[in-house]
## 1
Amino acid sequence: MVILADLLQRQAVWRGGAAPVTAAIPAAPVIPTGYAGLDAELPGGGWPVGGLAEVLCHTEGIGELQIVLPALAALTGAGHRVAWLAPPHLPYAPALRAAGVRLNLLTVIRAPGRRDALWAAEQALRAGSFHALLLWLPRAGYPELRRLAVAAQAGPGFALAFRPPEAACESSPAVLRLMLEPNEGRLAVSILKRRGAPIEAPLPIAIDRPAFERPPRAVGRTPFPAIPAPGVVARACAA
């Protein structure tokens, strides 16, 4: 018979008002974000392995990818593959290389429609081929997000969905939800949802931006060429 202490230790019971995971309870595996101040506020100290996280942005191009680039650089530096699914624009290879991301281990997956993107994301997560999957989701319902969250549980890394700010008012199965806003050259990171007690004030995060980019973006403004035929096309990002 499973007792309550065992359930709490495995984090099978959500304790919304409880303190974050401490050293007394084995923390779930994470991948550090690379920002000490943010890691200090996240359960376990990073992006949740085997979990779905969300980043909500008020404006595109405020440096939202900088929040995840240190983790991608660390993962690819260790020889692990990462994937971007349905990014809004062509990835900007010089910025990614400058951030330490090994481009030969980055796969960009294109999808002609929303349903294709959701299907491709679920398949990629269930395959366990990537240690990080970044997904751009302008629209998604709770059942669709739930399927992604369940699929992410079996993987070796984390899944991160970029969503619009309106999604903050919607229910989500994500174990971590962040809201990003620009703040005097920094990012103000509000933690909307995490395991443990809520955080009251946004965290100011100083992001590292390459000097040669004006404005600095890891995703540029060049649109993808049209997909010639129905289906999902995957390719490795060329150096």
## 2
Amino acid sequence: MSNPTVRAIVTDIEGTTTDINFVHKVLFPYAYAKLPDFLRENAEAPAVSEQIDAVRDVIQDADATLEAVIATLLHWIDTDQKVTPLKALQGMVWADGYQRGDFTGHLYADVAPALRQWQASGVALYVYSSGSVQAQKLLFGYSDEGDLTPLFSGYFDTHIGHKREAVAYQRIVEALDLPAESILFLSDVVEELDAAKQAGMQTLQLVREGTQAGTAHACVDSFADIAL
């Protein structure tokens, strides 16, 4: 797949660069197990306290106890909710895990070589994931292939907007200050690709194991199949 006009690539993580099982069978269970004690031990820390208050705002209960906040967060993990304060707190817990060496960030074998090649050729690389920017930096910073964060020019999360809404991609286009048609968005999720296409971006679906290929976007099985 050749994209001669591409000046920037924005990539999703889960199911695109990273096996979805790593997120659901390693990261989520780790956060679920560690989050309650992490919050009880660090509730007074400003960064943590700010997110606890953000949870109270979401559930519209300013007087919710810490235990009620913890129960809410665990429920959000159970139901795979993309809630910004949860993502921020998960990122803090995962930081501990990465730094302790409890796990490394999974990448498909074809990802790091392609990222290095694209960046070396002058293409700017960005990440857009529903996980927090902190979690994104941790995954690539403590990846199976070492620290890949120097390859990236920027990161976007749910603060920029929902991944299935075109306005989020319009904001990314504005932030990158490039013509939309010169930006390639990579994802395994058709609805995200649809939204990016509505914003004028080029799109490419990664069809990894367990992914259902759509018909509205060009498809590849591997980053190695993307020739810029």
